[in-house]
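Let's sit down with a protein and look at its sequence and fold side by side. Please make up or recall a protein chain and show it to me in full. Label the sequence line and the structure token line clearly, so we can match residues to local backbone shapes. Go ahead whenever you are ready, and we will take it from there.
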Amino acid sequence: MSTQAVTDFLEKVSEDQTLQSELVQALKSDNDREAVTQLGNGRGYEFTSEELWAEIQKRQAEFEQKRSAGELELSDEELEAVAGGEVLIVTMILTGAAAFAITVAAGATSKW
């Protein structure tokens, strides 16, 4: 069990739409932290709910630091891609903290 397993799991979530859907469903359960842990464990990523929570808190702190520093703005290339109708938004959002964006989006209903 390790935080590396959590990182690997969250990275996989960022790449796998089916897993993203399963994550959304897990986050709707009464004990969402345990449901997400079971989802990860079931996919071969061995970590505890405490390790998951520690990684989520770490990523939230990193996100807040970047947001406060104004580092979350889109580059000119990214703005052009969006303006041109290209579907690159997921790639832009997930850069650096791959699954963090998914967790933040789902965090609005999270009970953690």
Notes: The two ends are 21 Å apart (CA to CA).
